[in-house]
Design goal:
Helix 6 links the parallel strand 2 and strand 3. The chain is globular and about 45 Å long. With 178 residues, it is mainly alpha-helical. Helix 2 runs antiparallel to helix 5. Helix content is 51%, strand content 9%. The protein has one domain: Rossmann fold (3-Layer(aba) Sandwich), CATH 3.40.50.1820.
């Protein structure tokens, strides 16, 4: 799972372990917002500001969010067009769905259940990811009992777009180790 999709995968693996053979978690964090004991995330006020701005300037806020996905990537300009085409392939997301997703990101903290997840896991993190910092990936790799970490240098939040060969190599190695 990528980003929020990784959080969904973690929760599914915890709740229905018999249905999940292995996990690949890319740009995933157990908690997307900072908490008193979790500094490896975005300030909650920043996330809430996105939700507030969706009401006022939907398209501009959406474009800003897309740009944040690439912030810090060494291939940001090259990847921006690809990201936009993937994200908007089926039209623009509904404002209601985006607000619900932001609320889910703000309220989710999966740290307490992670050690119970016993499936093999590959954690992929970009060392330039400002949305889900590499420290969050390191945490996941150490908290999950059977996890390995691959840090992709020069990648931000979308390593599958900016560094596809490195992601493919990590996936191949993980699949061959199982």
């Amino acid at each position: 799972g990528w980003s929020l999709g990784g959080q969904v995968a973690l929760e599914w693996a915890r709740l229905r372990p018999e249905r999940v053979g292995a996990l690949v978690l890319m740009s995933t964090t157990p908690s997307f917002v900072q908490r008193p004991d979790w500094p490896h995330a975005m300030a909650e006020a920043t996330l809430r500001q996105f939700g507030d701005e969706l009401h006022v300037a939907y398209r501009q806020t959406l474009q800003r969010f897309v740009t944040l996905q690439l912030q810090g990537s060494e291939h940001a300009r090259d990847t921006l067009g690809s990201l936009r085409s993937h994200l908007f392939a089926r039209g623009e997301p509904s404002p209601h769905a985006l607000r619900d997703s932001l609320e889910l990101l703000a309220s989710t903290d999966l740290r307490s259940g992670i050690s119970a997840i016993s499936q093999p896991a590959l954690v992929i993190a970009g060392d330039r990811d400002t949305l889900t910092p590499v420290a969050a990936g390191r945490y996941l790799a150490s908290a999950l009992p059977h996890a390995s970490l691959v840090v992709i240098h020069g990648a931000a939040h979308t390593p599958f777009l900016s560094h596809p060969q490195a992601v493919i190599a990590a996936l191949d190695a993980f699949a061959n180790d199982k």
